[in-house]
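Posting here for the record, re: zinc ion.
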Amino acid sequence: MRYECAARTDVGALALQALDPPGEMQGLLEEIERWPECPLVEGHGGHHFGLVRWLEHREAGLWTSWRDGVRPTALLALEDCSVWEGEDVCSGFRGHAGEHTWALRARDSAEEAVAASRPAG
Ligand SMILES: [Zn+2]
Ligand SMILES: [Zn+2]
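Prediction output follows.
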């Protein structure tokens, strides 16, 4: 089984530029994933991708993409992958490279982070 990429970036400054109006900024910042993690397979080519927030009612998400060592500069709306395996749905975007997320092994640190952020019950 292959590992997920799990590269991270800080999308904070980009989100501040992109999210308006300013009055709603604080609430929106609480709704976004400020340090999105790349769900693609390790060693994938091209850009990393990270989910910034789900877009409700659209079966899509607001994603950002970046290269190693470079801050992300764009937000893009991408449809969900929505490929199921048993009770697991892929959390990638439609047309992503490599295996679906349920076929990848999370890195240990990522597993701890997910466990810590998941509400009890
Ligand atoms: Zn990546
Ligand atoms: Zn997928």
